[in-house]
Amino acid sequence: MALLAIGISFRTADVSVREKFAFPETNIAPVLKELTNSVQGLTESIILSTCNRTEIYCSIEKTARENLVHWLLRNRQGELEDFNAVNYTYWDLEAARHMMRVTSGLDSQVLGEPQITGQVKDAYDSSRRAETLGPELNLLARHAFHAAKQVRSRTHIGRNPVSVASAAVTTAHQIFSDLATTSALLVGAGETIELVARHLRRAGVRRIAIANRSLKNANSLAAKVADHSMRLSEIGDVLHEYDVVISSTGSPEPVIAKKTVQQARRHRRYRPLFMVDIAVPRDIDPEVATLKDVYLYTIDDLTAVIEENVDSRRESAEQAEEIIVGAVEKYAREQGARTGRELIELFRGSANSVRDAELKKAIDRLDSGSDPGELISRLAHDLTNKLIHSPTLTIRNAASDDRKEILDYIRKSLELD
After folding, report:
1. Does this model's pTM top 0.70?
2. pLDDT, tens only, 99-121
3. What is the pLDDT of residues 332-367, one digit of tens each?
4. Domain ranges in the chain?
5. 362 contacts: CB under 8 Å, gap ≥ 6
6. Residue 5 near residue 104 (C-beta atoms within 8 A)
7. Which CATH code is given to the segment(s) 2-160?
8. Which of 13, 51, 99, 280 is catalytic?
9. Second-level CATH architecture of 164-303
10. Among the residues of 226-313, which ranges form H helices?
11. Is 51 designated active site?
12. What are phi and psi of 11, to 5 degrees?
């Protein structure tokens, strides 16, 4: 079995492609079980799906990669040509390194952002509940979380990072010079929307409302960071009242249609409407971008704002990469030791099976009246032949293939010099 990491991210695919391969945030357990049961040769799996990436980490036979890809395309109704153009594949230690970099925020759109560590932990917990974890991914995840903790504590990479939330508010300043005169409608009730609300408050936005499918969750978040809450179904009636709209839900379909924005635009008498869609799949119909006086930004459009802050953390990133190198080496040593223990257990089990079988034969012969002395001699002879049979074949094959390094290793290991 091999360790595989396969996926797409903001580095390889824009949001229009990423949303096709995004998995739902909730109820991922049946998907994980289907994956593990459907792809022959795959024994463990973790699915990481965020607004910036969709990745599958798994323990799998190398010949089964294409089966995994076809499962993904069937499940997400994607096209092979689209996926082949943007996917990346890492095996074994490179896969381990990739997971550690992702978990530490080194592969994030916002370099060093802490949210990704929590998202990887959530993905790990989902796999644990779905019972698709095993020794390989458990070991990898443990080392990835430890590496992320080391990066966070030993470098300044996470100090004052520009988040997607703050980048959205910074971009709003480009449309409205004074945010204190604006009102904002935030769609969703998750961590990102809460961060957006706090940034808007600090920017002086006079009125903030939260809209969510669950009114209970909207009320709960509004009590902390906003002035008003509503259901998603109410957006069409009040959209024209807001200057800034920022959306981040887990909906598989758009929650704000072009028609809804057209109606709001008329009610606003064509005053500018700033909208940011930071959801994947997208919450706002992309056609909204064609409307005059409506400024629609996606999560990909915020990259320029985020990149301005990256240079100040380059030195910390270099330190973090060194930590990852050490973490991969430590993981490799422990993985090798575990593989060695498993091999020893298999070898002992095989030897014990041979011993038990030969001992049973000897006891049966003894019960039949065979001479004990002859039995002991025969038992020793048969045991010796059975136990050295496989190693003898290995030596013969290595010799016939002129594999001197294998022969030298066997000679040294068995102290035959």
Report:
1. yes
2. 999 999 999 988 888 889 999 99
3. 998 888 777 778 888 788 888 888 888 888 788 877
4. 2-160, 164-303, 339-413
5. 375, 378, 379
6. no
7. 3.30.460.30
8. 51
9. 3-Layer(aba) Sandwich (3.40)
10. 235-238, 258-267, 303-307
11. yes
12. -75, -25
